[in-house]
Amino acid sequence: MKQLIHIVIWIATLGFCLSGIAQQYPEKPIRLISPIPPGGAPDLVARALANTLAKQLNLSVFVENKVGSNGNIAADVVSHAPADGYTLLVGMDSLFVINPYLYTKIPDANKEFKPVSTLASNQFVLAANPKVPANNLKEFVEYVKKTNPAPAYASGGNGSQHHLTMEMLKARAGIDLLHIPYKGGVEATTATMGGDSIAMFSGTSNAGLIRSGKLKAIAVSGSRRSKDLPDVPTIAETYPGFDNTIWIGLFASKETPDAIIQKLRVEVTKALKDPAMIESLNKAGGIEPFSTTPDEFTALIKKDQLKYSTIIRSLHLQLD
Questions:
Q1: Are strands 216-220 and 113-128 parallel, antiparallel or unpaired?
Q2: Which fold has domain 2-122+246-315?
Q3: Stretch 7-32: mean pLDDT
Q4: DSSP string covering the chain, please?
Q5: Can you tell me the distance from the alpha carbon of 247 to that of 165, in angstroms, rounded to the nearest whole number?
Q6: What's the whole-model pTM score?
């Protein structure tokens, strides 16, 4: 009986301490870990969020890039940091809806993290080297079908969304392209501009390169046209039902107190309505703020897990 009383007292004391910590949060700098190099969509979103939260909270919020293994390295950093809300992951959806089906020897991020909030959504642009003799999707497909041997396309890495989106298009259009994986979207973009590949799926963050003529936009992957590239048709206008939109979210390690998670949600929701942050995301290439409830976020993760697991299994992809 005495032992039971001691346990109850200990639990109550622990709960009181955690409540006190949550009430004081945040009181020191916050680290946002980005899984990709500077310049890509998750990094741009992380930096826009850091600037906005710093103003709201009146403390330092900074971004660190931990690149590699489709985001697994960044996830490892956050999962092993203290679960106090001061080291957070700005994670692209692939970490949660693709990686669990690519890697069998790496912990499933869905079991290591708590979702805090969605942050932004974006879609891909089928961007070609300017010398490719195609100005729309129909012409691009015809060009690829006539080219022998199969031309190369670039991606941000094996199993990346750049890779899987092109594989979705290949299957739908009945075309063949040789996949050349790079270490990130920036490197893939450089290869496409330089002619090492004929095309790639890139984020709309490359809209500036498209406007300058260094890349040629063929189509966008979402269900509607991009606000930043309104003259570029969707793939669905040629192949009805095609839709691949990406999202970026904020995650905390699994042991983070729920009270801290809730505080973060409040601040993030406020940040996503901030005109300066909205403008910053739009200037980054038409990236749009994307706010959901916790239940909607959970449902979105499950829906995308089904979509990507299906194509990964059809390709027999495994990276470890």
A1: antiparallel
A2: D-Maltodextrin-Binding Protein; domain 2 (3.40.190)
A3: 67
A4: -HHHHHHHHHHHHHHHHHHHHHHH---S-EEEEESS-TTSHHHHHHHHHHHHHHHHHTS-EEEEE---GGGHHHHHHHHTS-SSSSEEEEEETHHHHTHHHH-SSS--HHHHEEEEEEEEEEEEEEEE-TTSS-SSHHHHHHHHHH-SSPPEEEESSTTSHHHHHHHHHHHHHT---EEEE-SSHHHHHHHHHHTSSSEEEEEGGGHHHHHTTSSEEEEE-SSS--SSSTTSPBGGGTSTT---EEEEEEEEETTS-HHHHHHHHHHHHHHTT-HHHHHHHHHTTS-EE----HHHHHHHHHHHHHHHHHHHHHHT----
A5: 14
A6: 0.80
pLDDT tens digits along 77-124: 999 999 999 999 999 998 999 999 988 888 888 999 999 999 999 899
User: For the domain 123-237, what is the CATH superfamily, name and number?
Assistant: Periplasmic binding protein-like II (3.40.190.10)
pLDDT cut 90: percent of the chain above it: 70
189-245 per-position pLDDT tens digit:
999 999 999 999 988 778 889 999 999 999 999 999 988 889 999 999 999 999 999
C-alpha to C-alpha distance for 45 and 203, rounded to whole angstroms: 12
| Structure-token match 């639990």, residue found | 11
Phi-psi region of 159 (alpha: psi -120 to 50; beta: other; left: phi over 0): left
117 alpha carbon, distance to own chain's centre: 13
Tokens of 30: 């916050």
| Two domains, one topology: 2-122+246-315 and 123-237 | yes
Q: Is the peptide bond before 38 cis (omega within 30 degrees of 0)?
A: no
pLDDT digits (tens, 9 = 90+) for 151-202: 999 998 888 889 999 999 999 999 999 999 998 788 999 999 999 999 999 8
Residue that the structure tokens 């590239």 belong to: 229
Cβ 109 vs Cβ 281: under 8 Å: no
Domain boundaries, the chain: 2-122+246-315, 123-237
